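Help: read this over?
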Amino acid sequence: MVAFSEMFHRLNPWSKDSNPISTTTASLLLVFYALSYFLPFYLSPLTRPSPTLSRDNPSVIRARIRSVCISCFCCCLSTFLILLYVADLSVPDGLHYLGLWPLGLTESARALGLTALLFAGPLFLYLVVDDGWKDWVKGYPVKELWGDMLTWRNIVAGPLTEELLFRTSSVPLFLLSSLPVSRIIFYSPVIFGLAHVHHFYEFRLQNPRVPVFAALLRSVFQFSFTTLFGAYATFVFIRTGSLLAAFAVHAFCNGMGLPKVWGRVERLDGRGSRLVWTVGYYTLLVGGAVGFWKELWALTEGGNGQTPLVGFCFWQYR
């Protein structure tokens, strides 16, 4: 335990009374960062949604990607300067807090494998039941990724910029404050979830006939699962100390979507036994979830984590 504490204080050499910034300052900066991410969407006719211009239009996607790249660069630079000149960290330590170096290739692979356990059922459905493995052999998903702007946004640009903003730029600010690591994991993702609420307005523009209550329920559900995912991504980011790991997990989850949790499972062409497919799917879904929970700590453990005490602190609040 002594060595554990010494390692923690080496990475976090500030006492509770001498934190470089306060939790309030970190929170306000996070809110400002979030606003800088999506508010510009509504300032330009190139990115502003309308009844005739969808957020999924390729021209809108390109313009929004340019906008968020500028926002993310400015936010990352702001946090990096705070790490250097307010927290008095060295450049290597500052890059480590940002999750930019070391890259964490091994940690990323382990985190991706852990997340795949959670999607064991959907992977079985896609690769085996629907013969998705054949598409991968032919390279169709890779061609789609590079040739379709919507796919590029959902799998690459969206996850990367969101992780740069809500993990790389934001989490180090809370690590500098007096907020316990366990609370960072559950607190900061709330802003991440709220940053998606503006989709309610865009959805209403494109679907005016959908009742307001139904659209509101849709936004509440989206807020709930994005906040939950944000907590997981923050956990992975702090445990691995790697932006790449958080990005890989985010991109994978976006590609998989929400798992099917009820109903029968059958092939698109109707061949095969629906009972076999259904039993296989739900067995893997439950088994994968159990495996995910059991391996959560082992597969996110690495030598580059932001703080070795994250596991200890987190269990205190379970």
